[in-house]
Every structure is written in C-alpha cells, then in structure tokens.
Amino acid sequence: MPVGTGDEVERLIREARPEADFAVVSNPEFLREGAIADFKRPGRIVIGTQDERAAQVMRELTRPLYLNHSPILQTSRRTAELTKYAANAFLATKITFINEIADLCEQVGADVQQVARGIGLDNRIGGKFLHAGPGYGGSCIPKNTLALIKTAQDHAAPCASSRRPPRDDQRKRAMARRVIQACGGEIRGKRIAVLGLTFNPNTDDMRDAPSLALIAGLRDFGAKISAYDPEGTRTREMLDGVDYAEDPYACAKGADALVIVTEWDAFRALDFERIKKQMAALVLVDLRNIFDPTEISRHGFTYVTVGRPRAARLPGKCKVACREEASGT
C-alpha cells in the first residue's frame, strides 16, 4: 500500500461511522514468490500502529509463527508502509548494482560471480540478490520501486532508486543485442530457442519477466522464436508469434542459438550431446551463468555469458564471449 493509505482508510471509515471503535494497522508482507515458508517462519513481522490494543491483537495473531524469539518490529503506520517499499527498492538496487558490475567485469576481464562472492562474504552486504543476469521481474519489486519513486517525487524528496527502473528496462532490451551479436550481428530469418520464460524458476508468473523484452527485441530484428518453460503455461496469453515446444530438445530443433533466460533446475542437467544434434548452429547464450564454461567447451559451443572475461579461450572449439557494449548504450 502506498504511504498514507492507512490514513485514508481510517478517514473514510470515520467519515462513514463516526461512532465506530476500530484501528487500521499496516502489516506488510515480505514473501518471496510462492514461498509459503516465509509466512510460516517470517524473518520479521512489522506492525504499523500506535494503538496498543491493536498491536496486542496483531502480536497474538502472529504468535504461532515463531518459536522462541518474536521478530516483531512495531512502528507507526506510515513507517510500516514505507518499510515495504524501501525493502524491495533496496533489493532492486542490489540487482541493478551487480548487473552494472557485470558490465564492468566484461570490459576489464574480471569474473562477476567471483566479485559477487567476494563482496557477499561481507556480512554488511550479504550474498543474496547479487546474481548478474537479464534484470528483475515479478509483481513486487518493479511496482514497489515505481511506487517509491512516485512517493518521493510527491514529497519533493527524490532518491537514488529513481534511476533504477529505466536502467533495468535498458538491461532487458540489451539482452536481445547480446543474442544478436552472438549470432554474428544478423538474426533475420534465424531461429532463436528460448529456455525459461517466467521471471523466476518455480513459478508461472510472467509479470515483467525479462523474457518478454528479450523476445520482443529479437522479433523486432526478424528472428523466429521457439520457447519452452516448465511452468509458463500463461505465456501463451502474453506472447504472440512464438512456437511453444514440449521440452528443451524440441525447442532447440533447428535453432541458430539457444538462450537461457530463467534458471530452472531442469536446464542445469541438459544433455548437450543431444542438443547439438538438434541445433543448426552451436551458439549458447547463458544469461544466468548456470553452466561451467569448461564443460560447455567440450561440446563445441560458442558460449556467451554475463560478466565473465570477454573472449577467453578455453580448451576445444568453444569460445566464451561477452557483449561488446555496456547495457543501455
């Protein structure tokens, strides 16, 4: 709820029922997509109210969710509302930051995965949300970040997060250019196989998924798209002109490039000898860095990654390549 929503709800109720005895409490959720465990064992419970009776009701309501120590933070209502937005905006900032570092790694010959581990081992930073890739999606982070920007603008207090959504949008579009470059700069009439459509694995959620911008960009340059996602049945409603396959191998049939967009566990165990026999050209664009370059080299693929040293030669026929230009340029 945008900051001030609770105040407006309270005003409307008091206007309609002046005699009513009630309290409006902000109790934001901090759940990951589909993570019921986050509700059953929350890392923190924020109760936004200055009404002690209401606070006690909320404590009793949430008591079964913790065993020994209560992770409860009681704040004002507006503080609780802002906490939700600030949390998601900070996660968006971490994702955007590591993607920018990935761009720098490609230019200077560093490895973003090792950089992320190096800084993530610092307890003040932590390793979560430091995975370079094609950008973030889902329902919460994009809309909450935009809502925070709007709130900051409304109160003449612009914050650094106001720069993040445009940068993330640019990154999603830049992923199409990465695929085009991997295919030699021209994809008109070529078939691109896309593995993973949902914004995260283990969900069917397509809201703001990076695959949407990627596929739109590839189609704009004349590519034919085949796609597969283990759960993305809803994608058929959101993507026109895409040939949907029943499995990764059918998706790769006749493809000039194979693109990993979502890091489903099923993709980590692909049979690349079988994949090779299906494809027209051995180009693998891994936007999630889920494969070992040495392993991929044994199969003869040109392997394009995110945030790894550019054009690093590996044994065999494989070449690890990265995007020549920084995202958004």
Notable traits:
N-(1-d-carboxylethyl)-l-norvaline Dehydrogenase, domain 2; alpha/beta; 3 domains; 8-stranded mixed beta sheet; 10 strands; Rossmann fold; 329 residues; disordered C terminus; 41% helix; 12 helices; elongated; two-stranded parallel ribbon
Could you outline the blueprint of secondary structure elements for this entry?
Layout: H1 5-16, H2 36-40, E1 45-48, H3 52-62, E2 72-75, H4 77-108, H5 112-120, H6 140-154, H7 164-182, E3 191-195, H8 210-220, E4 224-228, H9 235-238, E5 242-244, H10 248-252, E6 257-260, H11 272-278, E7 283-286, H12 293-297, E8 302-304, E9 312-313, E10 319-321
Parallel strand pairs: 1-2, 3-4, 3-6, 4-5, 6-7, 7-8, 8-10
Antiparallel strand pairs: 9-10
Describe it.
The protein has helices at about 5-15, 35-40, 50-60, 75-110, 110-120, 140-155, 165-180, 210-220, 235-240, 250, 270-280, 295; strands at about 45-50, 70-75, 190-195, 225-230, 240-245, 255-260, 285, 300-305, 310-315, 320. With about 325 residues, the chain is an alpha/beta fold. It folds into 3 domains: about 5-75, no CATH class; about 80-160, N-(1-d-carboxylethyl)-l-norvaline Dehydrogenase, domain 2, CATH 1.10.1040.10; about 165-320, Rossmann fold (3-Layer(aba) Sandwich), CATH 3.40.50. The chain has an 8-stranded mixed beta sheet. A two-stranded parallel sheet has the order 1-2. Strand 3 (about 190-195), helix 8 (about 210-220) and strand 4 (about 225-230) form a beta-alpha-beta unit. It is elongated, with a radius of gyration of 23 Å. Mean pLDDT is about 85; it is low at about 310-329.
